[in-house]
């Protein structure tokens, strides 16, 4: 009887552990997670383009760059889209961020404004795409894009040349950095769990 109880406990532990491994693997598979993000991002571009009239390119796996080591050795990054110059934007980028084990830890975007003759000396108008990219990523991650927009507006009202803000929304820490000297805005969405 004692052997049966021990065998049952071992079997129970093995079944429990194997199902935990499977569940963990499903939750952390970077390819599946990135595919879901791309699908949601592309849907969000359509929705936000209708409301903002700003064209944001959809992500295409054909344009994804290889994973490269971060300069500070804190993990890897993968450029998902690099945008070129248009009316208000000198350039922009959407990036997927990975830890050292190549698990996705978040997403980042930046946009840099285009210098025009009418700009106030020492500042550049912010990139429309740079501003909207944060809302697109927030929507793709099922976060409140209006809250992201509100934080950006609050920062603009402070009229600082360089400004930083961060807050938490669901399971992400969202950081926003603006630099009026180049019309730049950086959004960073890092998982907290």
Structure characterization notes:
This protein is an alpha+beta fold. It has one domain. It has helices at residues 2-28, 30-52, 128-140, 145-157, and strands at residues 68-69, 76-83, 89-98, 104-113, 162-169, 172-179, 184-191. Strands 1-2-3-4-7-6-5 form a seven-stranded antiparallel sheet, with helices on one face. Helix 2 (30-52) packs across helix 3 (128-140) and helix 3 (128-140) packs antiparallel against helix 4 (145-157). The longest helix has 27 residues, at 2-28. The protein is globular and about 45 Å long. Mean pLDDT is 83; it is low at 1-26.
- Summed up, the helix count is 4
Give the ordered list of helices and strands: HHEEEEHHEEE
Estimate percent helicity: 25-40%
The oligomerization state is: single chain
Radius of gyration: 21 Å
In the predicted model, the low-confidence regions spanning at least 5 consecutive residues are: 1-26
Distance between the termini: 43 Å
Q: How many structural units, i.e. domains? A: 1
The rough form would be described as globular
The strand line-up of the biggest sheet is 1-2-3-4-7-6-5
Number of strands: 7
**What share of the residues does DSSP label as strand, in percent?**
25-35%
Secondary structural class = alpha+beta
């Amino acid at each position: 009887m004692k052997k049966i109880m021990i065998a049952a406990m071992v079997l129970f532990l093995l079944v429990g552990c194997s199902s935990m491994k499977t569940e963990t693997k499903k939750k952390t598979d970077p390819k599946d997670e990135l595919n879901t993000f791309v699908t949601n991002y592309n849907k969000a571009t359509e929705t936000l383009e209708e409301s903002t009239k700003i064209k944001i390119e959809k992500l295409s796996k054909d344009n994804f760059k290889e994973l490269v080591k971060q300069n500070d050795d804190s993990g890897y990054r993968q450029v998902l889209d690099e945008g070129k110059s248009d009316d208000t934007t000198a350039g922009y980028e959407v990036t997927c961020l990975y830890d050292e084990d190549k698990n996705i830890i978040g997403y980042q975007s930046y946009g840099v404004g285009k210098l025009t003759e009418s700009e106030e000396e020492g500042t550049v108008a912010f990139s429309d795409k740079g501003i909207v990219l944060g809302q697109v990523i927030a929507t793709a991650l099922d976060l409140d894009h209006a809250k992201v927009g509100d934080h950006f507006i609050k920062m603009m009202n402070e009229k600082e040349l360089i400004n930083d803000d961060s807050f938490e929304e669901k399971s992400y820490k969202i950081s926003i950095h603006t630099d009026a000297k180049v019309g730049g805005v950086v959004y960073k969405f890092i998982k907290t769990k």
